Amino acid sequence: MLILTCPYCGVAADETELAPGGEAHLTRAGVESSDEDFEAYLFQRKNPKGVHFERWRHANGCGKWFHAARCTVTNEVFGTYPAQTLEPPKEILDEIVARRPGWTLETGP
Amino acid sequence: MSEPVSALGGAVFDGAVKVTELPPRAMFSLKGDLASKKIVKAATGLTGVDLPGPNSANGAGENGILWMAPDEILLMGPRTDQATAAARLEKALAGTHHLLADVSDARSVFLVEGEGSALREALARLTPADLHPEAFPVGAFRRTRLAQVPAALWMRDGSAVEVLVFRSVAAYVFGLLGHAAAGGSLSHF
Ligand SMILES: [Zn+2]
Fold first, then answer.
1. Where would you tag: which of A17, A68, B2, B55 has the fewest CB atoms within 10 A of its CB?
2. Could you tell me which of B125, B154, B124, B150 has the C-alpha nearest to residue B138?
3. Domain that holds residue B68
4. How many domains does chain B fold into?
């Protein structure tokens, strides 16, 4: 069972109080983009074994969307952070590196 | 004006813990900057209670302010002349960015009463929220779920919790609360 602390209201929310929103930090490809880029935006998703960044909504709660960094193998939570950002904040990245030495952020699709 | 009626006509379940459907209340959803003096004044002026902090609520009788989200509060009061109350709120909020909606018909309220640990145990059968007295003291308010539906719990005092749910699921929740409150081992808190 996953417990994520909502960065807006501070509630330690149970997985069943949350709605999953899939991979975080996607770059939206619009109508002007190439077919390949648009297809990648719509369908191509990371499926890492380990550190992953996701969107969640505190649905049975304050209703806000937020981000979470967790390990897909152990469900260890590295931290949660607000939705108003295009990339994981430094303190989250530092926390991940502290617990997973050698890990680096993969950029790009 | 037609007479407002509650969803279950004031249904009561009297078990190890008592469940009572409360009469209809006036409820206003107010969204905006909760640091705004005008919004605070409008809310406290109508209800007569202080603005609560995050995850808590303040109340006196049927009046109350419930902290719903960082930018949303729910104002409650007696179900009498809510048109006047709404007009009074709009007047107090004039010129301030806000969203005000009369949601008096949206929700049902249940009063769940009993000895402290039995009360917490009965509700903990239905919600994933931590209801230990340290995590959920008197005055605490939490939006969560009861079994399969969204609900809000308000610890009014050591032996009474008000449960707010959407009116359309009032019968379902009354059934749930009745089963949870019927008895069994209620002494784990
Ligand atoms: Zn929240």
1. B2
2. B154
3. 25-102
4. 2
